[in-house]
Amino acid sequence: MNDVISHEESGNRGVFFIDSGGERIAEMSYQKLGDSGILIDHTEVQPRLRGQGIARRLVDAAVAWARQNNKKISATCPYVVTQFDRDPKIGDVKG
């Protein structure tokens, strides 16, 4: 899966997502926490594509964005919480 991860913000919300062939196949949504961070509240991958590391690619994109923009990431999304618990290499952006 080499589809490009895109990022959009509108108002107080944002999303990292992958579109393929005109279909949104994966997304991870968040809300802004002031100027210093975001709260990831949902991650979803089309059922037929689960287990291929796509959700982790979204997490990695959010982590890279947070590092570039000096932001911290909090999460209520169980998948993202688990990734932060399992991978100390991304702990520097954990809010």
Secondary structure layout plus pairing:
Blueprint: E1 5-10, E2 13-20, E3 23-33, E4 37-45, H1 54-68, E5 72-75, H2 78-86
Parallel strand pairs: 4-5
Antiparallel strand pairs: 1-2, 2-3, 3-4
How would you characterize this protein structure?
The structure is a single chain. By secondary structure, the protein is of the alpha+beta class. It has a single domain, classed as Gcn5-related N-acetyltransferase (GNAT) (Aminopeptidase, 3-Layer(aba) Sandwich), CATH 3.40.630. 25% of the residues lie in helices and 40% in strands. It contains 2 helices and 5 strands; from the N terminus they run ββββαβα. It has a 5-stranded mixed β-sheet, with helices on one face. β1 and β2 form a beta hairpin. It is globular and about 35 Å long. The mean pLDDT is 96.
Please describe the structure with a list of short key phrases separated by commas or semicolons.
five-stranded mixed sheet; single chain; Aminopeptidase; 5 strands; 95 residues; 25% helix; alpha+beta
CA(first)-CA(last) distance: 29 Å
CATH topology name, in short, is Aminopeptidase
Helix content: 25-40%
CATH superfamily label:
Gcn5-related N-acetyltransferase (GNAT)
Please give the order of strands in the largest beta sheet: 1-2-3-4-5
Number of contiguous helices: 2
The 3D shape can be described as: globular
Quick synopsis:
By secondary structure, the protein is of the alpha+beta class. It has helices at 54-68, 78-86, and strands spanning 5-10, 13-20, 23-33, 37-45, 72-75. A 5-stranded mixed β-sheet has the order 1-2-3-4-5, with helices on one face.
